């Protein structure tokens, strides 16, 4: 019952990262907002969640895990209701910020609880359950959001959280035992402020960079300077504080398994969410797929992920972490290589099968990576460790999406310029007035321009898939840094701390 309760909380938070995207045009009309203004519905949630995520470790230390979990679920559910009831842009942006603040704790705390209530030999199965909850958001979010918006209203994108949040709140209140808070350290206000400014500026830069023409905009430069200064102050402050007295305990970074896990989950976040962002726009923009069909042909990727997680959850603990991770990254790289062979002439099976293969690869990575990252971390540091782990995954996804979208725009322009060098009067195939692509007629010239634009965009998509494939393959040697945990005769005393 603990697992069911906390996974419901995880699912509603993971869903809200993507479920509102497809409802933006409807919100824009209902709230009388411009295209630029309505994007703050997404930006406010992302930035608030990123800033609040590192705070989880201290909150659990100060108030106890159960109390933090209950307040987070209640606050997130109430904020969801406020989003659905919003009548102006300002109201929904403020409500989304509250959603981000309260929702930031749900994913890392659910991971921490699952690790605590299960013995070490079952951590693989526990992380499989947790991984399915985390992955269901980017998979079902756009499809569920589109269905709710079309069949009811965009407000139900948020109202759907209310019954789920209520059940999760009751389950956490009823079944999780309230352990006494540790209260080991005082709140490091300077560390929190500097880290918050750095993360907030980075998220703003990534989320609004393409829209602002990146470094052609004063806003981007201001955000970059703020991020660098705040990060420098935070690093200097943390390095000079006594162990355990800084906002982020630097002793976490002395654990090789944990640090390697942070790097790898950063890459997984980039590859997973970047692919999720690219595929629908490619299918709808270049191949004319309606939104519903685009969702159907990409959904099997999530099915592959969940099936792989179920299988690998049973293998983790019996098979070397590094072997499972190596196979997972290799399968993911292979699926991305398949995507580099995409053209404008694709059948639905050409889209479905590489997606399933990629889903299997990510499922093979996600579970053992989570188990390996925390295998050698003490239970007392799990709350802070899981918060930083989730933060790195989220930052990786933000950077990945910003990177592939920027390269897509720029590589499309470059490929378009290259292809147009072949569209000249010297090409006899383009001078036949009876042909559909004839420079001799206005309609023919327009068709040539449209086809060149489509081909250029396809080249840019393929370039993005090449980049992600190379990034995935490049991290495989890092697996040599992971060390399997030593066998323990008895579970750690804190592992059952949250059982009633």
Could you state the oligomeric state of the chains shown?
A: single chain
- Total number of helices: 19
Mean pLDDT across the residues is: 78
Q: Structural class, please?
A: mainly alpha
Describe the structure.
By secondary structure, the protein is mainly α. Helix content is 72%, strand content 0%. It contains 19 helices and no strands. It has helices at residues 2-16, 24-30, 35-38, 40-52, 56-63, 65-85, 89-103, 106-117, 123-151, 156-159, 161-175, 189-208, 218-240, 256-286, 291-315, 321-339, 348-374, 382-420, 442-474. The longest helix has 39 residues, at 382-420. The chain is globular, with a radius of gyration of 24 Å.
Tell me the layout of helices and strands:
Elements: H1 2-16, H2 24-30, H3 35-38, H4 40-52, H5 56-63, H6 65-85, H7 89-103, H8 106-117, H9 123-151, H10 156-159, H11 161-175, H12 189-208, H13 218-240, H14 256-286, H15 291-315, H16 321-339, H17 348-374, H18 382-420, H19 442-474
Helix pairs in contact: 1-8, 1-9, 1-11, 4-7, 4-12, 5-6, 5-18, 6-7, 6-11, 8-9, 8-18, 9-15, 9-17, 12-13, 14-15, 14-17, 14-18, 14-19, 15-17, 16-17, 16-19, 18-19
Give a quick summary of the entry.
The protein has 500 residues and is mostly helical. It has helices at residues 2-16, 24-30, 35-38, 40-52, 56-63, 65-85, 89-103, 106-117, 123-151, 156-159, 161-175, 189-208, 218-240, 256-286, 291-315, 321-339, 348-374, 382-420, 442-474.
Notable features of this structure?
disordered C terminus; 19 helices; mainly alpha; 500 residues
């Amino acid at each position: 019952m603990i697992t069911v309760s906390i996974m419901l909380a995880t699912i509603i938070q993971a869903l809200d990262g993507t479920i509102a995207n497809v409802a933006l045009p409807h919100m824009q009309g209902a709230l009388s907002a411009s295209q630029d203004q309505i994007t703050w519905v997404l930006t406010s949630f992302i930035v608030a969640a990123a800033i609040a995520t590192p705070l989880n470790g201290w909150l659990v230390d100060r108030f106890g895990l159960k109390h933090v979990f209950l307040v987070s679920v209640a606050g997130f559910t109430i904020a969801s209701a406020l989003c659905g009831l919003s009548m102006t842009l300002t109201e929904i942006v403020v409500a989304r910020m509250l959603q981000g603040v309260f929702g930031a704790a749900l994913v890392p705390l659910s991971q921490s609880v699952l690790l605590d209530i299960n013995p070490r030999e079952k951590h693989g199965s526990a992380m499989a359950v947790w991984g399915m909850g985390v992955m269901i958001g980017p998979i079902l979010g756009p499809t569920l959001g589109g269905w709710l918006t079309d069949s009811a209203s965009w407000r139900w994108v948020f109202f759907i959280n209310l019954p789920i949040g209520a059940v999760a709140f009751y389950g956490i209140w009823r079944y999780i035992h309230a352990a006494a808070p540790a209260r080991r350290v005082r709140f490091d206000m300077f560390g929190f402020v500097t880290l918050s400014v750095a993360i907030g500026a980075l998220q703003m830069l990534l989320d609004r960079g393409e829209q602002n023409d990146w470094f052609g905009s004063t806003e981007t430069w201001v955000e970059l300077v703020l991020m660098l200064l705040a990060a420098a102050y935070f690093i200097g402050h943390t390095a000079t504080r006594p162990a355990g007295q800084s906002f982020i305990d630097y002793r976490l970074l002395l654990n090789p398994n944990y640090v390697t896990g942070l790097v790898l989950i950063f890459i997984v976040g980039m590859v997973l969410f970047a692919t999720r962002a690219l595929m629908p726009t490619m299918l709808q923009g270049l191949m004319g797929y309606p939104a519903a069909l685009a969702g159907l042909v990409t959904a099997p990727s999530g099915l592959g992920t969940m099936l792989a997680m179920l299988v690998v959850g049973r293998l983790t603990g019996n098979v070397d972490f590094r072997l499972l991770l190596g196979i997972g990254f290799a399968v993911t790289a292979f699926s991305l290589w398949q995507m580099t062979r995409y053209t404008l002439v694709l059948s639905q099976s050409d889209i479905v099968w590489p997606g399933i293969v990629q889903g299997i690869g990510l499922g093979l990575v996600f579970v053992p990576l989570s188990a390996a990252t925390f295998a050698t971390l003490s239970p007392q540091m799990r709350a802070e460790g899981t918060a930083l782990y989730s933060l790195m995954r989220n930052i990786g996804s933000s950077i990945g999406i910003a990177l592939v979208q920027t390269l897509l725009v720029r590589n499309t322009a470059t490929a378009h310029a290259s292809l147009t060098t072949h569209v000249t009067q010297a090409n006899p195939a383009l001078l036949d007035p009876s042909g559909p692509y004839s420079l001799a007629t206005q309609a023919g010239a327009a068709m040539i321009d449209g086809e060149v634009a489509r081909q250029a965009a396809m080249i840019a998509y393929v370039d993005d898939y090449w980049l992600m494939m190379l990034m995935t393959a490049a991290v495989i040697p890092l697996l040599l840094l992971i060390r399997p945990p030593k066998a323990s005769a008895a579970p750690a005393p804190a592992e059952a701390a949250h059982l009633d």
